[in-house]
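Appendix B, record 7
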Amino acid sequence: MQKDKFLVKINESFIQALGIKCDFNNVIKAIHKQEISLFSQHLESDLSFFEEINSLIDKMMNIIYHPHFQTTTNEVVLRSEISQSLNQESFIKTTNDPSLWKQKPNKEMYPEYVHSIEYIDTLNIYENRVLIYVYEQILAFLENYKSQTITQNSSIQEFYKQKGLVFAKHNIVDDLLKNKKRIAEFIQGDEEKIAEMNTFLKVYKKAKRIKLTSFYKLLRHEKIALPLMPTNILIHDLNYNSIYRFYKKYLVVKTEKDGTTYEELANYIFIRLIDDLITSKYKFNKFSKIKINQLILHPTKPFVCRKDGFRYSIDYQFPNIDVCVSYNKSALAFHRLTIRDKLSNYSFIDDRDINTFYITLNNECDQYFNVVDININKQNNDEHIFDNLFKSMRVNIPYKNDKVERCPVCGGMRLQKDKNYYYCDNCGSKLAKLKIKSKPSLWIQSLWRY
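Structure tokens (predicted):
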């Protein structure tokens, strides 16, 4: 996977700011003095990448129309009148095989059939299978870009992270009318994005043509072992070499199906989370020391902060951030922030006492439930996104009844009680009864877990 250059660079700044004393306060001071910016100042564009793919598709088409092939020879038995001139080996085999000979009326013997050589040209060679492999990787990327960027990123659905419209007393219709300008900016994009989209559409249409060729249809089911190995053709033929260089540049390191987490991304998420909470007036205890091991930040103790009477203990253990929330030690709630560079396979964690959130740079799974989309670009930054996440961990409502009969989230009657906690079998919400500011309240520790 390709590490983001901005994240690599900002992590160098984090490590430098920590200094030899590993003091986390130095990082926060550097951020607030604007010596370190948590956001990239320019919008990354895929335009040059699409242009590179466009050039590679042209080279692939050149190969398809003028490919390398392998000639194989097979021994065959043919009627003598249709065979070509025999070589020495075929002649000897024919003379030594009496079953091929026939007697003429004049008693002379002649070969009715002869041993011969058949030459077969095949496209099924290693280098052509390499082309198909790289092509299918490119096409998968283009298909994903099409489904995600066109249908989601520039849409009202993506703006609100919501599918469908409801006509309840509180809904998004009023907000749609109120935020028309912001929504217009979000869905229309800038000139650079328009140029990027036009180039993408041209490349996508061109790439789809390869699937229609007999070359592709012949080789598409052939398997190839990874990693790809350089051969004379892949090195010395300019067209084939372009394919191999693209593979080395972009495809050598593969991510897992649901994305992966590299050190710089996880460190960035952790520090951005802490800074967001500080800016949102969460009161932190003294920061623990930070150790660095193989580029990963390791707090020696969990970070602790408070707001509205709730206490948050934040423990960063690569690649996850675990958050334990409590109120006067009378009840606990556990949350796990799972970090992924991209999220293409949403997995429900079946643990009723741990609420899992996915933090991702690239949401490809078409799910919004408990998914936090992070953007590193200044232009697309969602301010205080982690404050909103932590607010969801302390939702509480006044509740005077001695016993909880019905789930306040979904209205279901299938509640299970375990000590001070209630679990809804219908929607998966977890609840706790406690006193908040001396008033009986119901703490909704997790909402709609399934």
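Remarks on this record: Residues 253-257 have pLDDT under 50 and may be disordered. The radius of gyration is 33 Å.
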